[in-house]
User: Fold these one by one.
Assistant:
Number 1:
Amino acid sequence: MGAGPALGAEADVAGRWSHALRDGRIQCDLCPRRCRLREGQRGYCFVRERHGGEIRLTTWGRSSGFCLDPIEKKPLAHFHPGTAVLSFGTAGCNLGCRYCQNWEISAARTWDRLAVRATPEMIAQSAMERGVPQVAFTYNDPIVYAEYAIDTARACHEAGVRTVAVTAGCISPEARAEFFAPMDATNIDLKGFTEDFYWHITGAHLADILDTIAWVVAEGSTWVELTTLVIPGFTDDEAQLRAEFAWIRRELGPDVPLHLSAFHPDHRMRDVAPTLPSTLRWARGLALEEGLHFVYTGNIHDPEGELTRCAVCGEKLIERDWYTILADRLTPEGTCATCGSILPGRFDAHAGSFGPRSIPVRL
C-alpha cells in the first residue's frame, strides 16, 4: 500500500479488502459483517462508502484529536512501562456496544465537523519531535480505518516510533495479517464470553473475536494483552468468568496479561450500576485460581491489582499507583532480580517516568 493521497477536498482512499458481487453490489471484506453496498451506501461502520466500482475509506488523514497518555492507560502493563504514547482516533466503529464510552466518536455521523488534518508523516514526526516512543490507534476501533492505521504505522517505524492498536478484534481473516503486521503491541477487548452477550450487547459474534485473538497470539510478532469489562448482571457471573479464564490459559497460555476493568454507566446502559471494587478484586482472584499469571484491575484504585509480580517466585517487579511507576525491580535484561526468571513482555533497561498525565496536543 502506498503512502495515501495528499489531503485536499477529498482524503478518501480505496478500501483494501473488497470484491464485486454478481448483483452489482460490492462486498467489504475488512470485517466479519461483510457489508454489501450499492452506489452511495455506507457500511455499518459509516466510514467506508461505495463510490463507483470501489469501497473507499472516508477518514484517511483525518483525526478526531490527539493526546499524550501513559502507556498503562491503553491498558498495557508489559509493554515499555512508564512511557508516553501519542494517542489518536478517527470516527466510526464496526461494533455497536451499548455501553460505549467514546460513542460521540465511534457513532459519529457528522464526521467533517470533528476532523483535523493528520497525515501519517505528520503523526510520526510529531511523536518523534516530542520524544514519544510510540503511537496508539485508539478512541475508536482502528480496524475501521485500517488503511490509515497501516500507513501511519509504517511511517512511525521509519521514524523509529513504535505502534499500538487498541481494538475489539472484529476483523476478517483476510485482513488481519496486514493489519497486525506493523503493530508492535495490541490490547484486544474480550468483552464477554457468551454469544448471547456479544450479539445482543455489541452486535458482534464471540467466535470471530476468539479467532482473532488466538491468531494474533500464535502469530507472535505483536505483543498482546487483553481487557474484559466486568459489567454487573452481564459479564460478572462466575461460570462465564471461569470459562473465559480457562480458555485464555488453554488456548493462549497463562502469560498473556489480562486487565479486568470496572464498568461505568454510559451511552445506552446508563441504568446499569457501576462495578464494585470488591467484584473486580473477586474476579481477579478467580483468574489467578484458574492459572493466569498476570491479572490486573482497571478503573479502580487497587495497588495489588496494579502490581506486576514474578510468576515464579512472587517477587514484586513493577509497582504502580494508578499510572505512575513507583518501583522497577527488573534487571536491564528483563528478568526477575531474585530468581532470574524472564518477565514476558517488551521492556526497556529501566521503566519510564511519564506519570499519570493526559495532555491534549496539536499537530
Number 2:
Amino acid sequence: MSWIFLFFAGLFEIGWAIGLKYTDGFSKPLPSVLTIASMIVSLGLLGLALKELPVGTAYAVWTGIGTVGTALLGIWLLGEPATAVRLACIGVIVSGIVGLKLVA
C-alpha cells in the first residue's frame, strides 16, 4: 500500500509544480488554492508512504515522479523544448525510479 501512496503523492507533486505556473505568483485565487491543496495532499501521502518505506528511497521516487511528470507536462502544456538530450535525461530519471523500486 505504501507504494500506492507514494505513486499518488508523486502525481500530486506534479499537480502543484505545474499549478505554480498558473498561480501567477499566487495572485490568482483558484489556481492558488488548488496548488496549495495539491501540496498538502502530496506531503500527506508521502508521510503515509514513509511509515513503511525507507526515507531515501521514498523521497527519491517521489521527487523523480514529480520531476518526470512536470518536465513532460511542461513540454506538452507549456511548449517547453523536447530535445533529444532532454528526453534522454528524463529517461535516465525514469530508470533510476524503476531501479529504486526494484531494490527496495
Number 3:
Amino acid sequence: MVRTHKDLNVWKKSVDFVTNIYGVTDKFPKAEMFGLTSQIRRAAISIPSNIAEGATRKHKKEFRQFLYIALSSAAEVDTQLIIANKLGFLESNKKDELQLELTSISKMIQGLIKTIIT
C-alpha cells in the first residue's frame, strides 16, 4: 500500500537518477554551470519532484497530470544527454547508461499513469 510518494519505487529510482546526474554534470565545463549543467539538473530534479507533488493531490486526475509533467521532464533530460554527448561533455557509454536508467523510469511512470483511473 502506498502511503506517501516515498513508498513509490519510481520516486526512489528517480531520486537516485538525480544523484547520478549531479555526479556526471559536475564534470561538465565550468562555463556550462549556468547553461546545460543547470538545465539538465533542473529537468532531472523535476522528475521526482512532480511525482511527489502529484502524489499529495486529492484527486487522481491531478496526480496523473503531475506524472505527465514528470514524463515530459524525462524526455527533456534525454534530449539534454544527447546534446551533452554531441558537445563532448559526456562519453557515449555514460550517456547510454543514463538513457537506459531514464527509459526504465519513464516506463515506470507510464505504468503508474495507466493504473490511475480518472
